[in-house]
Design brief:
Elements: E1 12-16, H1 20-31, E2 35-39, H2 47-51, E3 55-56, H3 60-65, E4 69-72, H4 77-85, E5 99-102, H5 108-120, E6 124-127, E7 130-131, H6 134-137, E8 142-148, H7 150-155, H8 157-163, E9 164-169, H9 175-203, H10 208-215, H11 223-226, H12 228-233, H13 243-259, H14 265-282, H15 290-297
The structure holds NADP nicotinamide-adenine-dinucleotide phosphate (NAP).
């Protein structure tokens, strides 16, 4: 987290979904002086935010009633539908000038439907998926992709600037989520290629740190090869983004590709590998725990 809290800002922000990402975004918004109202289905996950000054309420409806901007950070499109349109959903707490901004990673086609239903109900709607996990969200250093009405994006830009070090406005509903899926496709493949490189080096009897040292001296290095790969070698799979959630995103990428006739052979294979890893009990690990599943395959 940054240094000290600033003066309270006038804009009230709501967060629905205080899992790993929602909690970190919330802590940072509190840190830079926003008033924060939060809801999470499992209440224990709001305790840290409460300790840091957030108001915890009993339903998404109360979040909406007390916020100008309601940020949803939940698992998938079904969860977004639940928190917006459920019996105590956001839509019941609607008021003039309120906007819902969805930060969850969801199917762009579902997002377009949600956007249409929300805007028809007279509420502004933005898609704001992000790149980067809780470890960077805590310092406001996410990368944010936005779509929806440009004037609404501009209205809340100050908040997005607090959340992210870079924000990209991308156009109509569905666009940001489509680009976000193309991003997560990179994450899934990079974790797989590092897993196989490390496994091959180890099985061949060499120190995988040498593999990483050389890889990171070349054009082919990535943030992942310079960062999490060292944790992968040490078998440290403390989650910042779970393997189960990345598998969920691969399902969404697959469905989205199918809906626009994009043939993605690597995605098909990756989806199966992550699904097998989840079925084998690796779902709650960090997504980089895919290396543990790959390593196990060599033991057979
Ligand atoms: N972690 C990252 O690095 C990262 C980065 C970018 C985007 N994302 C995306 O952000 C979203 C949240 O990710 P996360 O890492 O914070 O996951 P997480 O820790 O697993 O949290 C998931 C959140 O969704 C809520 N939820 C799930 N189903 C729900 C439902 N039907 N109704 C209400 N709430 C529901 C959970 O509530 P409970 O606590 O009650 O289960 C929890 O708050 C996902 O779409 C993920 O793909 C994550």
């Amino acid at each position: 987290m940054g240094i000290s809290r600033g003066r309270k800002k006038i804009m009230k922000i709501g967060i629905i979904g205080t899992g790993m990402l929602g909690e970190a975004v919330g802590l940072h918004l509190l840190d830079v002086g926003y008033e924060l109202i939060v809801f999470n289905r499992t209440k224990e996950k709001t305790e840290n935010l409460k300790k840091n000054g957030a108001i915890v309420v009993e339903s998404p409806k109360y979040v909406a009633e007390n916020s100008n901007l309601v940020i949803t950070v939940v698992k998938d499109a079904d969860a977004v539908n639940d928190v917006i349109f459920g019996s105590s959903g956001v839509i019941i707490g609607k008021h003039d000038g309120m906007c819902i901004a969805d930060m969850s990673t969801v199917n762009p086609n579902s997002s377009k439907e949600i956007s249409k239903k929300v805007t028809t109900a007279g509420i502004d709607y933005l898609e704001i998926p992000v790149m980067g996990g809780p470890n960077v969200a805590i310092d406001g250093k996410l990368v944010l992709m936005a779509s929806g009405r440009k004037d609404i994006f501009e209205k809340f830009k100050k908040v997005f600037d607090a959340i992210a070090e870079q924000s990209f406005y991308l156009g109509n509903a569905g666009t940001a989520h489509s680009i976000k899926l193309a991003m997560n496709l990179q994450i899934s493949m990079l974790a797989l290629s590092l897993s196989e490189g490390i496994t091959l080096t180890k099985k061949a009897g060499f120190d995988p740190e040498i593999f990483l040292k050389i890889l990171n001296s070349t054009y082919f290095k990535t943030g992942m090869s310079e960062g999490k790969a060292y944790k992968m070698i040490k078998e440290n799979y403390e989650p910042t983004f779970t393997l189960a959630n990345l598998k969920k995103d691969l399902d969404t990428i697959y469905d989205t590709a199918d809906s626009c006739n994009a043939e993605l052979p690597m995605t098909k294979l990756a989806r199966k590998i992550y699904a097998d890893a989840k079925d084998a009990g690796f779902g709650d690990m960090d997504y980089t725990g895919i290396i543990a599943h790959i390593a196990k395959l060599s033991e057979k």
